[in-house]
């Protein structure tokens, strides 16, 4: 769960002029869950495993000219690992002058 907050304080300087200072904090509790995982098992060319599931991936064979070879595909070392996390705690301070 991502919680952002905005706190501001304004002061009327004249009838038509106002100065406001503010603080914004994004991802207040600094939670960084996974947003994306590498789902590419291999970059080798292979035929689909009909009726297969993820347990069958280590048995997939490479193809050459649309023909299956006896060689097993090479697994992507990043397969199943986190590629993107939610942005960490950040903040912003600013001033706004309206007239």
Structural account:
This protein folds into two domains: 1-35 and 86-99, no CATH class; 40-79, no CATH class. The chain is rod-shaped. With 99 residues, it is an all-beta fold. The strands form three sheets. Strands 1-2-7 form a three-stranded antiparallel beta sheet, with no helix packed on it. It has strands spanning 5-12, 18-26, 34-37, 61-64, 67-72, 82-85, 90-98.
Please summarize what this structure is.
By secondary structure, the chain is mostly beta strands. It folds into two domains: 1-35 and 86-99, no CATH class; 40-79, no CATH class.
Topology (elements, then pairings):
Layout: E1 5-12, E2 18-26, E3 34-37, E4 61-64, E5 67-72, E6 82-85, E7 90-98
Antiparallel strand pairs: 1-2, 2-7, 3-6, 4-5
What structural class do you assign from the helix and strand content? mainly beta
CA distance, first residue to last residue: 38 Å
Got a strand count?
A: 7
| Largest sheet: number of strands, sense, barrel closure | 3 strands, antiparallel
Strand content: 35-45%
What strand order characterises the main sheet? 1-2-7
Share of helix among residues?
Answer: under 10%
Average pLDDT rating: 95
Tell me the radius of gyration: 27 Å
Query: Order of SSEs, N→C?
Result: EEEEEEE
Number of helices: 0
């Amino acid at each position: 769960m991502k919680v952002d907050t905005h706190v501001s304080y304004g002061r009327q300087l004249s009838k038509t002029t106002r100065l406001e200072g503010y603080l914004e904090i994004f991802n207040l509790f600094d939670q960084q869950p996974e947003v994306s995982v590498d789902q590419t098992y291999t970059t080798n060319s292979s035929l689909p495993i009909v009726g297969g599931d993820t347990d069958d991936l280590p048995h997939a064979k490479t193809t050459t000219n649309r023909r299956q070879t006896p060689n097993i595909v090479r697994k992507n070392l990043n397969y199943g690992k986190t590629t993107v996390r939610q942005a960490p705690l950040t903040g912003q301070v600013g001033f706004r002058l309206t007239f």
